[in-house]
Each structure stands twice: as structure tokens, then as C-alpha cells.
Design goal:
The complex is a heterotrimer of chains A (128), B (321) and C (543). With 128 residues, chain A is α/β, with parallel strands linked by helices. Chain A contains 5 helices and 5 strands. Chain A has a single domain, classed as 3-Layer(aba) Sandwich (Rossmann fold). Helices cover 45% and strands 21% of the residues of chain A. Chain A has a 5-stranded parallel β-sheet with strand order 2-1-3-4-5, with helices on both faces. In chain A, 63% of the residues are buried. Chain B is an alpha/beta fold and 321 residues long. Chain B has 2 domains: 210 residues, Rossmann fold; 53 residues, no CATH class. Chain B has a 7-stranded parallel β-sheet with strand order 4-2-5-1-6-7-8, sandwiched between helices. The two termini of chain B are 34 Å apart. Chain C is mostly helical and 543 residues long. Classes of the chains: A alpha/beta (128), B alpha/beta (321), C mainly alpha (543). Chains in contact: A-B, A-C, B-C. Chains B and C meet through strand 3 of B and loops of C. Strand 2 of chain A pairs parallel with strand 3 of chain B, so a sheet runs across the interface.
């Protein structure tokens, strides 16, 4: 294999525009050799379409609002691409984190180490 | 779950399976053997798609313009595919691909297919596999392919080889800032767009452009359009201009010429790549190394070395490893 | 941080090298004449007024709002009862920021988010519910309207309700927000009017207030979101004044009102108070000096009533940690202390659950209690500018001013504040700082208690996020349908048409906005006009 850069989709599920987390994470992932496709604020259809058309190896969601909104997107992605791993960050209170974990989504709340996030991306995409 | 073979993916993608088309495009990017295999499989299929290339300096608003054009383009062609190329980091080989942010709220559903491509070290404004990706999209019945080049500021002429027509996107004030690129860009364009035309300096830019264009002898007159893509101003007129160009170009047989040159380019690249691989094998083999040392020592003439190299290249597949 | 090393380079957040102690000799020459000037006198760095908090304690001003308008109304009343001395009406960000009604597909796709970050107010009827029984005449009210495109709606709604209740607009006190750094830098929305249209809206608001609401702070020039996005304190100062200059230059260009009046309107600004207590206090002192300097040198204004800056301040949300959230009560106190030592007029303290959710009632109450303890128990309010004359504080104030003007100049070199937003130059600056800050935390150079040291594996003091109400979307949908069904349709259509015409002209949009609100035109309809007339801002994306 050559040029085996793995591709990660990064989306924000809510409409509240704080960008702080995702851009830092995206940069760290790029610096770790990933191709990061940023789609900004995206609804379920946007996320599913991008996950398919871009044939990504991992989806990263920045979650800011009600957890049910994110869960709806996650379930649709899992329907369309069952084996695609998903991880999430953002303002995710403990009860919501548990719901995500139950769906097989790894959760990186504020204060998580970038190194851990990059490690997770490498592990989930089988890069290392 | 085992991965489908390349041929299975291709067949399925050509039958309209979108996720297999997407998967095939990644495999082509990842593995040049897959790329070659796909090219060979598609070699007999004539190119029919129209490819519109958008190039121009960074920040000119290419993505926004494409986003604004999508409604009109899709109304004319029924379906539109977009390939958007962004630069890879030379250090990590990773990339941030952000063009989709501006393009995704088109409301056209499945009739639009957008794919972000990282340049993966390629210069010239495109990715190594862009040409093949176009060939695949063409074979999968995407009648219109819009191609956005890197826009990293250097001359990006590769798009000319691949596109049926090229739109060069500039902004007011272009003449002052992009002096060095003027010549290259003006030669690349079949139409010109002054985007952000609500800013000062449109007249000057138009005059500068006309000045540079007056030196050329294009087969069709080159029109200059003014748009404010964020407000959708002038976008419909631009699209009509693009359609008019395509129609005229079709009449004059220019599109057919372009398609031929696109296929010629693909073929040349296959040959070039094949040659490079074989040459590399010669240069890095113990045998080749000895021959070169011989030439350096004077025991082998340059002519003999060349003949040996060519013989090696022609028969490298047959050699035992 | 410096416990074992005296030779290690120590810098402030702005990157100013700090000595281990200061003497009189360190104070820069140009600053020395200012040191002994009394508070309330030019150049004002020592404070707004000589008697400081003795004559006027800082206003306790908390951001609040969620759910249905009546939920928000109830929370505001709770806060006022708890001792808040002004109130802020927060609008639901999902709908408000984008000027969408709840039936917009982007909102429907996220219906559970509706009401999570503010109350849904789509028509004047909603605003009337939210304002029910609030002391509009005696309190300092904040009408909301955080992002620029939403401000005309939020303000017109507030004023129209107040008018309908018989209050005289000319005596209303309060503010909106209309914050450029929030809108275009810190908290970019999905769809919004371009910066030039935003500038026009804000100039319209400033001119309208000058004529009809002289006691109203028309727009808030705010550094908060610039800072919370990554700009350092010196850059926060520089960008804030670059923003102010853009407004004042525009007012001057339009020539419809006196520049002095505009400067007075713009002279109520807001900053973020972060965790480096002394530097943050110095930042507030620096801001006052810079404002008086700017008005004198650039606009030839030296009327002390105008060049004396008033400052509202909010503690840094991004400093509040997800882990061990009760530690945030201490952080809130420390950040509040910096602001108070800097002499701010108004203060909001972020909730201890900031990193988890919008504030719960308890977190909100704590934010007020922190301020009350500081105000009433600590003696901090007894003497104005308690830090004044400190070798360190005066030196750092002077150095911040110098660095801030340098950043201000580099923004001018980009073609001005608007150009620096449009091109993404400011975003790139902020992004770079953010990354560096993150890396410092990552490496442990910057310790964050409970996050990268003194961690708990399983915290016994866990707090869960507050999730508001769950009927905001349904009720808002019902109410929207109700308005559309029962309003005087002809009147609404006529007002909307006039709004579009005025948007396309260069008329002030506020009078027609007041008419539109009175005619029960809804938020989403106004947003559709904006999208049609102004288009969408081309968000600069860093790749």
C-alpha cells in the first residue's frame, strides 16, 4: 500500500457556533497524518452523505446540544455504514456520555489530551 | 466482511452504487495498482462527461462560487459531481479539507456528489489521481464534473489538460497582487470570473484582464463575468455564459478535442508511470548499479548503457526476481 | 509554576516577560505621569469614578435563559430575587443566531436542541411572555441579540413590548449585544449576513438609539469571544478598539449624527476576565487609558464624559473545567476578583457547570453568591483602584497598552478590522494561540487542577449537565402557527415588504423593524429577507 492516509470526517451536530474544540483536534489529526474532512455544522443528512461520499475511515462528532440530536445522526451513520467507527467530543455531560458509549461511540470530553484523541484515531482506523 | 474486488466495485459503481463509487475512489488514491487496473478496465469506454475546471488564487471564492453554481448546473445536467482538491501537508502528509463546508447545503440531495481530495504531494493544482477519478465518475454516468483546483497561488495548468473548459476565478485588485501569475492564469482560462465584484477595483481588474487577454488568439472569444457569489449575484449569468461556451465549443469540435486530450493525457501518464517504475527498478538493482559503475569506469559506452537500459525496461517483467 | 526556578522565563498570557519583582525604575517613562492621577480623571486607567464601588457597586449581571419564554421569565425573576441587579434575556441560539423559525429544516433536524441555550422568541408575543412582570423601567435590561443579524429583531421586540406597556423609550436603560467578535470570530453561525451588512446594521442601531433611546447602550463592543477563541489579553484589547474604530469611522462617513454622541454610545464595552488575575486587572486599566487616548488622538474628542470607558465583564467560560466541576467555583471567584480589581462596572460569572451544560439553577445562584461575597464581605469595594501605584501593576498596564496598540496596527495593516475578519487573518491568529495554549496544557507546562494533575479516576462530587425543559420546540411550533393564523395578515405582509425595500435601500432599518415587530412579523420571515438581500458571509475556513 502507498499513500495510505486515512480519512476522518469532522462535523458539528449543533447549530451553536463555538468552534474551539474541533479546529484544534482537526489540526492535531492532520499533523498526525490524517486527511480531515471538515464539514462544519451538519445535520444528519449532511453527515451521512459525507460519510458515504467521502468514504471516510472514522467520524468525529463535536456535540454541543441535546444528546438525542447526536444520537439520531449516529444511528443513521451506523445503519448506512455499520462498521464505521465514531468518536465524539464537546460539551457532553456524564449521563449523555454513557448513552454514547452504549452505542459504541468513544467519548472525549473537554480536558481530554490531544495525544489520547490522536491515539484513538489511529487505533480506530487501524493506522497503528 | 471481506472487501469486494476492484472489478466488483467498479461494476457496482457503474450500476449506480454510490458507496461503492466512493470506496473505489479511495482505493484508487491509496494504491496505484488499483488505479492502473481501473484505467485499463475503462480504457475502451469513450469519455462523455463535461468537465468544468475552476482555478484561481486562494481566497478568490472558488468553493462558494461552485456552491452557487450547483443549482443551475444541476438543473441543466440533472446531476453534478464535484472534485475539490486541497493541499496535503508536506510534513505529516495529512490534510485539512474544508471545501465541503461551503458546498453542502445545496438541497439537491443525491443529484450532487462531492468528493474532497488531498493533493498528496502533487504539484500543478490537482491530486495524482484526479484524472482517474474523473474517468471513473464519467464511466459512472456523472454527466457534469466540476473540478476545483488547489488554489495555492502557483500556476496550476494541469486543469487545462483535464477540463472541457476552465473558468479562472479572480477578485478585484488581482492585477496588483498576482503579477507573477498573470501570464499563466490568463492562458488557462476559457472564461474569467471577477468574484467579489462588489469590492472596489472591478473596472481596473477587467481592464488588466482584457489587456493580458488581448495577446492571446483563442478559438472562441473569452468572456469576463462579474459575480458576488455569497449573494448569488451574477451567478446565473455566469452559468448561461458557461453553457453558451460549451455549446459553441461543441459545434467547433473543441469539446471532442478536449476529451481526446484528456484520454491522451491519461494514457501518457500510465506510460510515464510505468516507465518510471521500470527505470527505478534498473537504477536500484544490483545489476543496473554495476552497469552504471561500468559506464563511469569507461568499460561500457554511454550508447551501450542506454541500449542495456532499454532492453532491461522492455523485459523487466520477464526477469526472475 | 515557578517554585523551583528563579532563572526560568516566566511570561504573562500576553507573552510579556515577568520579573520576579518590580521597582519604580521598571515603570516605562511614558506611563509615569499617569501613575498619580486620581481615578475618574483622564486618562482614566485608575477607574471610572473616584468613589468607585462606594457610590456604585458593580452590577451583578448574569446571562440566563432556556426553554420557553415563561421558563426564562421565571429564571430571570429567580435571579433578580437572588440579588442580580440587571437582567439578560438570552434567545435560543438555534433559531435566533440564524434568524430561523422553528419550522426551518435545519432547526427541525435538531428539534431537541431548541430552547437549550435560551428561550425561543419568534414573534413579539413570545417576547411579551418573557418580559412579563420584569422591572423594565427600573432595571438595566439586556434585550439579547447576540449575533449581529439577530440584534435588530431582539431590540425592536424588547422596545415594542416596552412601548406597548406604556414605557417611554427615551427613559429606557439597557443594552443589546450585536457583537462582531462573537458573530464573525468566536461563534460563527451556519448562515449569516456578510460583515459589511453587519456594520450597516450596527451603525443603524447606533443612530436610532441616539435619536430615540439616549440612555441605551446601542451595541456592545466586546472582546469576550475574541479572547475565548484564543486571542491573548493584549490582542483582545487591540481587536476591541479596531472594532470600535470601524463603527466610529462608519458613523463619521455617514455623517448623520455627531461623532461625540456615537463615541458615547460605543463607550460601554465588554471584556473577558480570565484567570491570570493581575494581568486581567491590568487589562481593564489599560482599556480605559486606550479609549481616552484613541478618542483624543484619532477623533479629537476629550470630553471626559465620553472618553471615560465603562466596562462589563464576563469570566472565561473556557477556563471552566469538565473534570471536578466544583473547582470552577474557585476559578469563578479568582476571575471575578481580577475584573473587580480592574474596576469594571458590571460582571457576570460563568456557572461552575459551564463545561457540562447551560447553568443549573444552583450554578446560577453560585455565580451570584460569588459576587455578593466579594462585594459585601471582603472589603474589596472599599477603595478605588486598590492596585494603583504598584510598580508591577503600572508596568504591566503600560506594557499591555504598548502591545495592544501594536496588534491594533497590525489589524489596520490587514486593511482594517472587517478585512481581517473576512480574510480569516484574525481566526488564524486565534487558532494558533489556541493550539499553543492547548500544547502547554498537554505538556503539563500549564497545570490545570483536576485535568492534567490532581485527577480523580472516579469523582464522588460529579455534577451532571442541566438539560432545561423538553417542550420548548413543541410549544414554539404551536405558537408560531398561532401567530401566523391569527395575526393581521395584510399588515404583516405590508410590513415585511417594506422591510425588504428598506434593506435594499440605505435607510435605517430600525424604524421599519419596529413596525414589522408590531405587525407580528416573525423572526424566520425576517431572516428570509436578509438571506435574499444580503446573502451569506463567506466564512474563512483554515485549511
Amino acid at each position: 500500500m502507498e499513500n495510505s492516509q486515512n480519512r476522518i470526517l469532522m462535523a458539528k451536530t449543533g447549530l451553536d457556533g463555538h468552534w474551539r474544540g474541533p479546529t484544534i483536534v482537526a489540526r492535531a489529526l492532520r499533523d498526525a497524518g490524517f486527511e480531515v474532512i471538515m464539514i462544519g455544522m451538519a445535520n444528519t443528512d449532511d453527515i451521512v452523505t459525507a460519510a458515504v461520499d467521502e468514504d471516510v475511515d472514522l467520524v468525529g462528532l463535536n456535540i454541543g446540544g441535546h444528546i438525542d440530536v447526536a444520537i439520531r445522526s449516529i444511528k443513521r451513520v451506523q445503519e448506512v455504514r455499520p462498521s464505521l467507527p465514531i468518536f465524539a467530543g464537546g460539551t457532553i455531560p456524564p449521563h449523555a456520555a454513557k448513552q454514547l458509549q452504549a452505542l459504541g461511540v468513544e467519548v472525549y470530553p473537554p480536558g481530554s489530551q490531544l495525544a489520547d484523541i490522536v491515539d484513538a484515531a489511529e487505533r480506530l482506523t487501524g493506522t497503528k | 466482511m471481506s472487501e469486494p474486488t476492484t472489478q466488483a466495485l467498479l461494476t457496482s459503481a457503474m450500476a449506480g452504487n454510490r458507496s461503492h463509487l466512493a470506496r473505489l475512489l479511495s482505493q484508487i488514491e491509496r494504491n496505484s495498482k488499483v488505479e492502473t487496473q481501473v484505467r485499463l478496465a475503462l480504457a475502451g469506454i469513450p469519455a462523455t462527461s463535461v468537465v468544468i475546471g475552476l482555478t484561481g488564487p486562494p481566497g478568490a471564492g472558488k468553493s462558494t462560487l461552485i456552491s452557487a453554481l450547483l443549482t443551475h448546473a444541476t438543473a441543466s445536467f440533472n446531476k453534478t459531481a464535484v472534485l475539490a482538491v486541497d493541499p496535503s501537508s508536506p510534513f505529516s502528509r495529512g490534510a485539512l479539507l474544508g471545501d465541503r463546508v461551503r458546498m453542502q447545503s445545496h438541497g439537491l440531495g443525491d443529484r450532487v456528489f462531492i468528493r474532497s481530495m488531498a493533493s498528496r504531494g502533487e504539484t500543478g493544482g490537482l491530486a495524482r489521481t484526479t484524472a482517474t477519478a474523473i474517468q471513473v465518475l464519467d464511466a459512472c454516468d456523472w454527466p457534469l464534473i466540476v473540478l476545483e483546483t488547489l488554489g495555492i497561488g502557483q500556476v496550476e495548468l494541469d486543469v487545462m489538460d483535464l477540463a472541457s473548459m476552465v473558468a479562472v476565478v479572480l477578485n478585484p485588485g488581482w492585477g496588483d497582487t498576482f503579477q507573477a501569475n498573470k501570464a499563466g492564469l490568463t492562458e488557462a482560462g476559457d472564461v474569467f470570473v471577477i468574484n467579489k465584484a462588489d469590492k472596489d477595483g472591478v473596472e481596473q481588474t477587467r481592464a488588466d484582464l482584457q489587456d493580458s487577454l488581448s495577446l492571446l488568439k483563442p478559438p472562441l472569444p473569452i468572456n469576463i463575468f462579474e459575480t458576488v457569489a455569497v449573494k448569488h449575484q451574477g451567478v446565473e449569468a455566469l452559468w448561461r455564459g458557461i453553457e453558451a461556451y460549451l455549446k459553441e465549443a461543441q459545434k467547433l469540435g473543441l469539446l471532442e478535442q478536449k476529451r481526446l486530450s484528456r484520454r491522451r493525457r491519461l494514457l501518457m501518464r500510465i506510460l510515464q508511470r510505468d516507465f518510471d517504475v521500470r527505470m527505478h527498478a534498473y537504477l536500484t538493482s544490483e545489476y543496473g548499479d554495476n552497469q552504471i559503475l561500468g559506464a563511469l569506469a569507461g568499460s561500457l559506452s554511454i550508447e551501450a548503457l542506454r541500449a542495456d537500459l532499454f532492453e532491461y525496461i522492455a523485459n523487466v517483467d520477464k526477469r526472475p526476481r | 509554576m515557578t517554585k523551583n526556578s528563579t532563572d526560568k522565563l516566566v511570561t504573562s498570557t500576553s507573552g510579556i516577560e515577568l520579573k520576579s519583582y518590580y521597582t519604580a525604575a521598571d515603570i516605562p517613562e511614558q506611563h509615569k505621569p499617569h501613575v498619580d492621577v486620581a481615578p475618574g480623571e483622564a486618562p482614566f486607567h485608575r477607574g471610572f469614578h473616584a468613589s468607585g464601588y462606594r457610590s456604585k457597586p458593580w452590577r451583578i449581571f448574569q446571562l440566563s435563559g432556556f426553554g420557553k419564554p415563561e421558563d426564562e421569565n421565571e429564571r430571570i425573576k429567580f435571579l433578580l430575587k437572588s440579588g442580580e441587579t440587571g437582567f439578560i434575556m438570552e434567545h435560543d441560539r438555534n433559531t435566533a443566531d440564524h434568524c430561523y423559525n422553528v419550522n426551518h429544516p435545519e432547526v427541525v433536524a435538531r428539534c431537541e436542541d431548541v430552547g437549550l441555550t435560551g428561550a425561543v422568541m419568534q414573534s413579539i408575543r413570545d417576547t411579551a411572555i418573557c418580559m412579563d412582570g420584569l422591572p423594565v423601567d427600573t432595571s438595566f435590561g439586556h434585550a439579547g441579540g447576540a449575533v449581529v443579524q439577530h440584534a435588530p429583531f431582539a431590540l425592536a421586540a424588547y422596545w415594542t413590548v416596552a412601548k406597548q406597556r406604556g414605557f417611554d423609550l427615551s427613559s429606557l436603560k439597557g443594552t443589546g449585544q450585536s457583537d462582531f467578535n462573537l458573530t464573525y470570530l468566536g461563534c460563527v453561525t451556519k448562515e449569516q449576513i456578510p460583515t459589511d451588512a453587519g456594520l450597516r446594521f450596527n451603525a443603524d442601531i447606533i443612530e436610532f438609539c441616539a435619536e430615540f433611546l439616549p440612555r441605551w447602550v446601542p451595541v456592545s463592543i466586546a472582546g469576550y469571544n475574541a479572547a475565548d477563541t484564543g486571542l491573548t489579553p493584549d490582542q483582545e484589547l487591540g481587536v476591541l478598539f479596531a472594532n470600535a474604530v470601524e463603527y466610529l469611522d462608519e458613523i463619521k462617513r455617514r455623517g448623520k449624527m455627531s461623532l461625540i454622541q456615537a463615541a458615547q454610545g460605543c463607550g460601554g464595552v465588554s471584556f473577558r476576565a480570565s484567570i491570570h488575575i493581575i494581568e486581567e486587572a491590568c487589562k481593564m486599566r489599560a482599556a480605559r487609558l486606550m479609549w481616552s487616548q484613541l478618542l483624543r488622538e484619532r477623533y479629537d474628542i476629550s470630553d471626559p464624559k465620553v472618553s471615560n470607558l465603562r466596562i462589563h465583564c464576563v469570566t472565561a467560560g473556557s477556563k471552566m473545567t469538565y473534570q471536578q466541576p466544583f473547582n470552577n467555583i474557585v476559578r469563578g471567584t479568582a476571575m471575578a476578583l481580577g475584573a473587580i480589581l480592574g474596576g469594571v462596572q458590571s460582571l457576570g460569572v460563568s456557572g461552575y457547570d459551564e463545561a457540562l451544560s447551560i447553568p443549573s439553577e444552583h450554578a446560577h445562584q453560585m455565580s451570584i453568591r460569588i459576587q455578593q461575597v466579594l462585594q459585601e464581605e471582603t472589603g474589596i469595594a472599599d477603595v478605588t483602584d486598590p492596585l494603583g501605584g504598584s510598580f508591577y501593576v503600572e508596568t504591566l498596564t503600560a506594557k499591555l497598552i504598548e502591545k495592544a496598540w501594536t496588534f491594533f496596527e497590525s489589524i489596520q495593516k490587514q486593511g482594517g478590522y472587517l478585512a481581517a475578519l473576512d480574510s480569516g487573518w484574525l481566526h488564524a491568529q486565534a487558532g494558533e494561540n489556541q493550539y499553543q495554549e492547548f500544547m502547554k496544557t498537554e505538556s503539563g507546562d500549564q497545570k490545570i487542577i483536576g485535568v492534567n494533575c490532581f485527577r480523580d479516576d472516579e469523582s464522588p462530587f460529579e455534577v451532571d449537565g442541566f438539560m432545561g425543559t423538553d417542550d420548548a420546540f413543541d410549544v414554539a411550533t404551536e405558537r408560531l402557527n398561532d401567530v401566523l393564523r391569527t395575526r393581521h395578515e395584510m399588515g404583516a405582509a405590508r410590513a415585511l415588504k417594506q422591510l425588504e425595500a428598506d434593506c435594499r435601500s440605505d435607510k435605517n432599518i430600525m424604524p421599519v423593524m419596529m413596525d414589522a415587530l408590531a405587525a407580528e412579523v416573525t423572526l424566520g420571515e425576517i431572516g428570509d429577507v436578509y438571506r435574499d438581500v444580503f446573502g451569506n458571509w463567506n466564512t474563512p475556513i483554515q485549511t
